[in-house]
Amino acid sequence: MSEEKTGLIVGADGQTRCFWPGTLPDYLEYHDNEWGHPVSDDHRLFEKICLEGFQSGLSWLTILRKRENFREAFDGFDFERVSRFTETDVDRLLQNAGIVRHGGKIRSTINNAQRAIELCEQEGSLARYFWRHEPQPNERPDPVTYQALVANPKTEMSTRISKDLKKRGWSFVGPTTIYAFMQAMGLVNDHIEGCFCRAPLEEKRKAFKRPV
C-alpha cells in the first residue's frame, strides 16, 4: 500500500514510522522518544496543555522549536508561579520574540495556571484528573490507522474533557486541542499500526502506574 493509504514512511535508518515527522531530525526525535509516552508529572501536563493552546492556528513543529523559550518565559510551567503573573508579565512576554506573542494565549496560560491550582485542590493532582479520563480499549480504533486518525481529530472523550475544563474556567481547551494533548501525553497510543514505536510504547503503557 502507498504512504497515502498507510500513513507510514520508511526513514533513512530503515525504521517504519508514522508519516508526520517526515525526515526532520528534531521532529523524528520527538516522535520516537516522547510522543505518546505516558506522563504523570503535573508540570509537564500543564506545559503540554498550554503549548497545545499556543499551537492553535499554527503547526506543532513551530511550537516544538520554541519550547525551550516557552519554558524559560513561563518559569518551567510551574503553575504556582505562573498563576501570580501580572499584566506587567504579559507586557514582558509580548516583547519576547522567542515565543508566540499572542496576548490572548498568554493571558489564557496565566488563567489556566490559576485554574490548575483549583483543579489540584479538587482532584488531588492534574495527573489524577486527566488519567481518570483515559479511554477504555473498546473506545479506541483497533488497529489504529491513518484513516482513523485523519477522521477523528477529536473524540467523545476529548469533547467531554473539554466541556468539563471550560466549566471550570479553563480556556483554549477545545476538543481538538485536548485530543492532541491526550495523544502526546500517552492517554492513548496513536502510533499507527506498523510504526516501530507502537508495540514497545504499548508495553510501556501497560507497565505505567496510573495516578488514580
From TrEMBL:
<dbReference type="InterPro" id="IPR005019">
    <property type="entry name" value="Adenine_glyco"/>
</dbReference>
<dbReference type="Pfam" id="PF03352">
    <property type="entry name" value="Adenine_glyco"/>
</dbReference>
<protein>
    <submittedName>
        <fullName>DNA-3-methyladenine glycosylase I</fullName>
    </submittedName>
</protein>
<dbReference type="InterPro" id="IPR011257">
    <property type="entry name" value="DNA_glycosylase"/>
</dbReference>
<dbReference type="InterPro" id="IPR052891">
    <property type="entry name" value="DNA-3mA_glycosylase"/>
</dbReference>
